[in-house]
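Sorry, I am new here, but would you mind making up a protein's amino acid sequence and the tokens describing how it folds?
***
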Amino acid sequence: MEFAAMVPFMMLALALVWQVLLIGLTSMYASHGAAEAARQAAVTPDDMERIDEEARKRVLSPWDTPDVLTTSVVERDGARYARVTVVMPVFLPGTTGPWDITGEARVVTEVTPRDGVVEPPPGAQPSEPEEDDA
């Protein structure tokens, strides 16, 4: 009798643990996708299709479908960020809920040095030019 009374509570606890696991998995996919999108945006900043494709490579199905995952590059405080938003599944992967989980990663643009001169990092001592003994 006591076991029968506890089964619904155990099932509810199991469902809550499962939902927390789905939240963590969705968050992980959003952050991994954002990191890949930021890497690609650093190389091809104007090719949004390629950025989206690279972000989806790090996300497993069904989280990678177009109606679940969206990719964008946003500018904030003078810096660019890759943003991946994944719709949070409710109880079963593939079902969509009212919540979104967003991951962001900063896009570090690759810049060529001016005039071919590489400046030392801040705080480093400038190196002396080497002299030839010719």
